[in-house]
Structure formats: C-alpha cells, structure tokens
Amino acid sequence: MRLGDGLGFSLSPDGQWALVGVGHSPSRLDVLPCGAGEPRTIPSGELDIDDGSWFPDGKSVCVLASESGRTSRLYRIDIATGARRVISDEGITYVDCLVSPDGNFVAAHGPDHILARFPVDGGPPLPVKGALETERVVGWSGDQKAAFVYMRGELPAKVFRLDLETGERTLWREISPPDRTGVEGLGTMRMRQDASAFAYSYYQSLGALYVVEGLL
Hints:
Elements: E1 7-11, E2 17-22, E3 28-33, E4 40-42, E5 48-54, E6 60-66, E7 73-78, E8 84-86, E9 93-99, E10 105-109, E11 115-119, E12 126-127, E13 136-140, E14 146-150, E15 157-163, E16 169-175, E17 183-191, E18 198-204
Antiparallel strand pairs: 1-2, 2-3, 3-4, 5-6, 6-7, 7-8, 9-10, 10-11, 11-12, 13-14, 14-15, 15-16, 17-18
C-alpha cells in the first residue's frame, strides 16, 4: 500500500504512522497513516531535515537537521506543537540518527565520523565501543546492552552485534537481496528490537547491450 510522498525515516512505536521527509532546502516533516487517518505536517520551521527517528513516547521525534548557515545537529521536536530542543552540538556527520528504546540516547556520528550515543538530556557523547569508522547503526538490542551496525556499500552486508560495555564484535548475519544483479551494496537498514525482522533498501543499476548494424 502506497502511503504517500517522501523519504521514509521510521515507523512510530505503535506501527500506525510513518515519519517522512518531503522536499529539500528546507524539507518538510510529515507523518503518514499506515491505515485509517489523515497525513499531518510537523511544524519544523526553517530546518532542513536529513533523517528522523521516533521517541518511544510516540509524541516526539528526533531529527538530524541543519538551520540556515549552520551545520547539522540533533533536535527533539514535539509532533503536536513543533516545539524543538537541541540535543547535540553541531557537526553531526552522515544522515543517520536512531533513538534508543528507553529514549535516553540517540545513536549518530560525530565530527570524527565515529558512531556515538548522544544523551538526550545533555552530556558528552559516549562512543560506541568496537564500531569502525563509517559503520552505520541498524538497531538496538531489546535490553540496550548492544548495538547492531553495518557498512554501507558492502554486499553481502555484514551486520555485527557490538557489546556496548566491552566493544566485543560478533557477526550477527550477512544480508543481501535475492537478486544481486547490478547491486553494489545496501543503503539504509533497520531492524526490530527483538531482532526478529529487518528491512533494507538498495540501489540497482541495470544496463543492456545492443548490436547496431548497417553503419558502413
């Protein structure tokens, strides 16, 4: 079922709404119903939004965005009022942000390109131990003792479980689309907290060869 226009970010905790970004410079932040209901636009002012993730209360979202003349940082936005609060300093890199199951942290990449946990209520970011530079976050374990990461552009994509206390890396699984023809790697990937299901995107480039006759 087609939900509407936009770049999909994440589903609400109850699975009833999809958070999407529409347009660019600045982008618009919408919530689209996955069933009955009407689309709504979240007031986001002049923010240019790259990514978004729901907080577990279902009433607010975290976005990775930038204001005019500033670099990207993390914001918490109230869905009903559009009231926003800055979570991080400027300099967040890439286009990933993922709220933890308890809503206390947001996984994102700092200026050093290393994945870290940014405390929602303030404080210095906590590096995700064991994460390699440019690895992207897939999800959190249900007990929040581990994060799952992968490297974009690899095929098959190797998803590792990182123990947040020790940094121990464990290969969780390798993922690739059924038809790998023309696929150079996976794009965005997300998974359920119980690790029972996951979703991913990929770009596929296909070409064709032709024989041209009668040129001479």
